[in-house]
Write a structure and sequence with these properties.
With 108 residues, the protein is mainly alpha-helical. The chain has 4 helices and no strands.
């Protein structure tokens, strides 16, 4: 597998991670069946894609990028879909996470 394909898998895994968090919120603590099943399926898909990607990428860097995509993505979803406050501090720290993700990707 090429490095480009592996990074695309990490990106897709991160997107599924964001979808999982959205489904967890919608599941209302696991009390709603469809969102609960969706959360489980997206979590398993995310982990499977990450596991496939780390065959060609350094584990630590791929895992850090994956979690960073999830953290930034879930924060954005929270602000856009759930009207969570986009304070200056949240935006600055989210930007720092993003810069860290880019730095890790570039250094790999």
């Amino acid at each position: 597998m090429s490095s480009l394909v592996a990074w695309m898998l990490v990106l897709a895994a991160g997107a599924l991670e964001v979808g999982m968090a959205f489904a967890l919120k919608a599941s209302q603590g696991g009390t709603r069946l469809l969102p609960s099943v969706l959360a489980l399926v997206t979590a398993l898909g995310s982990i499977w894609l990450l596991a496939s990607a780390v065959r060609a990428l350094p584990l630590g860097v791929a895992y850090a990028v994956w979690t960073g995509i999830g953290a930034v993505g879930v924060t954005l979803v929270g602000m856009l879909a759930f009207a969570e406050a986009p304070s200056l501090a949240r935006l600055v720290f989210m930007a720092l996470v993003f810069v860290g993700i880019v730095g890790l990707k570039v250094s790999a």
